[in-house]
Amino acid sequence: MSQSSLTYGDFTLPGEAGYEKLTLELAEKWGADTIRDSDGTQLSPEILDSGKAIYSTLCLVRSVQPWAREHQNQLQQNFLMSLPKIAARKTLTITPLEGYYDEQFVLNVSDNPKRWWQVFDRTTGQEVPKRHWSVNTKRGTVTIAEAVPGHTYTVNFLAFRIWEEISMYNHLTNNWGDREHLAAVDPMQPAVQKVILRFLDGWLDEHAATTVVRLTSMFYNFSWFWGSDHKTLRDRYTDWGDYAMTVSPRALKLFEKRYGYALTSEDFVQGGRYNSTHNPPTARYRDYMDFIHDFVISFGRECIAKIQAAGKKAYVFYDDHWVGVEPSSERFPEFGFDGLIKCVFNAFEVRLCAHAKGNCARELRLHPYLFPTGLKGEPTFAPGGNPTLDAKNFWIDARRGILRAPIDRIGLGGYLSLVEPFPDFQDYIAGVAQEFRRLKALHAGGKPWTAPFKVGVLTAWGDLRAWTCSGHFIKGVELYDVIEALSGLPVDVEFLSLADIAENGVPRGIKTIINCGAAGTAWSGGEHWADPAVEANLTAWVQRGGGLIGIGQPSALAQPGRTFRLAALLGVDQDTGDRLANGKYKFTPVAAGEVDGLGQHFITSDCTQVPVEGAQVHGLHVLDGDTAVLAARGSEPTLTVRAAGKGRSMYAAGFSFTPENTRLLHRALYWTSGYEAKWSDWNTSNVRTECAWFPQAKQLIVINNDGEPQTTTVKPTGARKAVTVDLEAHGIAVLDL
Amino acid sequence: MSQSSLTYGDFTLPGEAGYEKLTLELAEKWGADTIRDSDGTQLSPEILDSGKAIYSTLCLVRSVQPWAREHQNQLQQNFLMSLPKIAARKTLTITPLEGYYDEQFVLNVSDNPKRWWQVFDRTTGQEVPKRHWSVNTKRGTVTIAEAVPGHTYTVNFLAFRIWEEISMYNHLTNNWGDREHLAAVDPMQPAVQKVILRFLDGWLDEHAATTVVRLTSMFYNFSWFWGSDHKTLRDRYTDWGDYAMTVSPRALKLFEKRYGYALTSEDFVQGGRYNSTHNPPTARYRDYMDFIHDFVISFGRECIAKIQAAGKKAYVFYDDHWVGVEPSSERFPEFGFDGLIKCVFNAFEVRLCAHAKGNCARELRLHPYLFPTGLKGEPTFAPGGNPTLDAKNFWIDARRGILRAPIDRIGLGGYLSLVEPFPDFQDYIAGVAQEFRRLKALHAGGKPWTAPFKVGVLTAWGDLRAWTCSGHFIKGVELYDVIEALSGLPVDVEFLSLADIAENGVPRGIKTIINCGAAGTAWSGGEHWADPAVEANLTAWVQRGGGLIGIGQPSALAQPGRTFRLAALLGVDQDTGDRLANGKYKFTPVAAGEVDGLGQHFITSDCTQVPVEGAQVHGLHVLDGDTAVLAARGSEPTLTVRAAGKGRSMYAAGFSFTPENTRLLHRALYWTSGYEAKWSDWNTSNVRTECAWFPQAKQLIVINNDGEPQTTTVKPTGARKAVTVDLEAHGIAVLDL
To answer: Where would I find the Lacto-N-biose phosphorylase central domain in this sequence (chains A, B) (predicted)?
Structure first.
């Protein structure tokens, strides 16, 4: 690899008018081949003419102001559920929009409420007959005429959104005062499509210097319903993957025509839970997602074709208005995007980006953003901040993922002028860019070594929500911790849905399956376990030699006498309180090794303390003496292993992403797969370090994920001798073997 | 009240042959009017002729040995579920009794297994057709011919019990070697009834000196299934209130004839949970309980009539074989018992005894039993023991209940000889007997004062399981703590079932209702909340002015968007993980008073620390700003109050029985009922003390529930002045006002 290839290219720099010199200097220092604008910055002619590629951001659905405000019935809309209200007497009046932010929502009474809205008696769960309620369009109220005192009622209704959420968020966060409220138009309306396409033609004409159109993103934002009181309950509902904000009578009519059945408001409202990604999707909702995905591809392709016909590339931002884009869908390549840009805090987001189907370029937007303060208001590029240390910490998190999966480009966003007083930051980013280019080149030479078995992560969603749960990391949703651990390990991972297992069993090559999550969630699987074929196929597979890792409340779907559907395989079940009278097996924990309270076992060999996890799961117990208890909380097992037929299983009451826990999971993958004899191949002795072996390049990369210097030893396969490496804090070593 | 009435009567002393002098001395000292035998002791002629009443214990169903062993098909039996087994191929063989104690159970193959047994595919939840399985009676196995690999199967089967459980427990606990294993006969068999009645005739003839037959108890023991390995899993299933051990083909046939429908094995087995009292009963099981209760009354009456015809009284022990006796049933008086004896550890058991319907004498068996060691093996009447302190602590626990509800007699059990070296114990019991007689006399003069409102405790069972959950106190089942608190408070309490509320609404006089327990349990209500009339009637009642106290997971029965059915009234709900995407209201806690972290409020006024309860309930959140948060764990409310329409509610994440928490609950009853202006009437200023005002006698009793001296002030109603009393440790004061 030539040195020059390490110092130039694959780097997107945010330019800033008024700082042309700095822009061009840093473009040189960081080897940027591309300059972008950001929200709040402009590129001046001097920058546009610098010979670099130029990214320009564009959000089509909010691009057509003031037309949008002049055509309110062409705005995007969604179903909302009114706040529950108890009937005191036979007549009950509900103000549907009460509690919602009136600058975001207005009632849609232009589409016939009697056709689209529903009123529910939530006490009985039954819909109130339409003849029993009426809408006062002037007052914005619904009156139920035959209410039962003591029953609780809600109204599912349609509301137009008059302020697009990202505009709203930026506006209110930055106190933009009387700056325009942008509204998002509904791209499924024929009139809107005409307006957007006409706008796009003009925009392309006006942006001659632009080489890459960075779409933000396509048409529908993730769901975000704001409350009226921003102090106490601003986010009444927000989900990164929910299709709630795609709904309209037009969409519902087209859906019915296509699928032969009609969806109702309750299919979207779900008693106020909406279709959060954290919950197992219904079959009807999955149909609807497919329907919208198809539409977004279809109209999206039309827009992308125009962009490409204008000689520009089309990149899409994998956030904001990404709903319906679905980069993990097999259909994603139909869009014809040239690139996909993901903002990353964690390694799993790197893998999410890499996992997109098709061949478009993968670009990461790294943190920190060039803003004065970070996400929680802490100083970054401001007095008291240490942006270099921030950058190092973000980089070591993301780097683990880049080590395992190919990424094409990286870049930054924000106000470039802010980095001027931080020369060490400028230096560090130059180094990051070089590290990135080295890793990219290695991937280009061939896939890095991975373990001789594949791992399956089993959820209700499967591959469509691979390498994420719903958006960025959420503490307490342990599957995030698990995928963050996996995203830096040398193992091939597939994401499987319960429906996949029911239909086709476990795919060939997979030797161990992880099911992790809280009961009822999409991650554990919830109602999707009701199909007995899932349990049957998995059970038969484990009995024949498969591996199973259950974390939290795996396979939980209560039936009398059993909570975990895979309890017999795990040898552990949870008594949620209905088996108080059933005695619990009194286990003898596995004898401890060097760590008090932690059973000595292959999987715990690198632990220096007892993993204390799963504080929210109570009533755990082992089924019999075949379950080996490695750790316990009083009489409740928190870490166990078991032989299950010819297979093996591990249960952990919880999991959090730490170096030691990542190692424990890594070992558990080997042990449950029955590959523990191969454990020492290409693994580091020090849990704070990781390595990747690139067999084609014959290069070994060793990384230090820690903020202190570390020493580690790697045992290659075959006759090669073990290698010991000293790494500086956050360091990387490249060894030719 | 004359002094003499305080020194004699209403006391049952356990006599012991060989210690005649001690027996008669202590009879004099303690004022015993009655002498009893105990398990392992005899009464000699000198004692029998002492002029005291004589209790003799008798357990009819195990009285007819060796006839019982010679007629195995006349023994008691029950359904058991085999351990779940996974099919590896099409043929699966299960050994039903595997894992069960073979000295307790043998297979019943004399009643046609194809008629009575069931095989279940627990993966699908479906019964396996009877033609697909067969029984090998010689090997004691069941073979399933059409099993699906990967599915889990169980066999529900009938087993005779060849060793009666109390005999088994005493035998094994005391290492009785080759002493006879007593078996219990099935009283529903006509042949058994003949044998028992003939035996009873003979027994009555032989026990001329006996004045009271103490039945232990009637016919069916509480359920107790032992495992094969007593070290790791002795109690496979044990429930104080389950009717499992009453089952037989004869009972099932008679049931079908009476009720017009047939019960199946699964009605009893419930997937291995059986019908634990902790779970909400099914309607079918409730029918079966009524059927057995009817039989126990019917045949019991026949036995009792013989006893009474012999000039003796019939007392029944409210434990052991008490199933079907049901002292809380309206039909209980039909037995015609002269007395009911309850062994008590706690005040709620005193109330349980007092709560029996009808007019039979209520007698308490106090602790400590006169044994060398206590229940957990700690020394009592042995070196290192302090039986006097034990007696004081048990007495102050029970006394709170005796203060509130009339009890007729007390007594002890065990080996009297053991008390000889403990003169201070002898003195203390003499004092206890006097205290008891004083309280009994006060109750005889009229009911003590209670608050001007009634309290309802709402469970799936209602009054049938009033003043207990299932047997003695179990830590972690918080309703025990609540009823233990209530049992010593000056409030009238009714126990209501969810079905009562659905059918009749809230009874008149009740001003506040408590619902306390874990989701799914009989205490919280579980599936019984599925009847919308419960929620509707309670909601309407609270809205009109009722009070509601929810503890733990009150009214929990999940539906989309709501976990607590009464969430709107409590202003608190629990997100079990399916509403992660729904924002939670950010509350401002009520300003603290003298205790950091505890909101100042009427109900917290006597707290000196934050009650830390409900560690097992996660995901708690308030609905809006109308819920006042008095205590929180991070962002989760753990103690809240709210106005709900014209009513009031309180929510607590948990409850444990302590003096401060009892006071908090007491205040909460007043506050939710809207009676806080009456709070100071007849309450003590010191939470470690309690008082009872007997208006007819014009006497105020003040008790110290603490092991240290206490001072307290009581404010009488009306113009009377407050009284301040100094009490010694465990002490009592009697004041004429």
So the answer is: 454-676
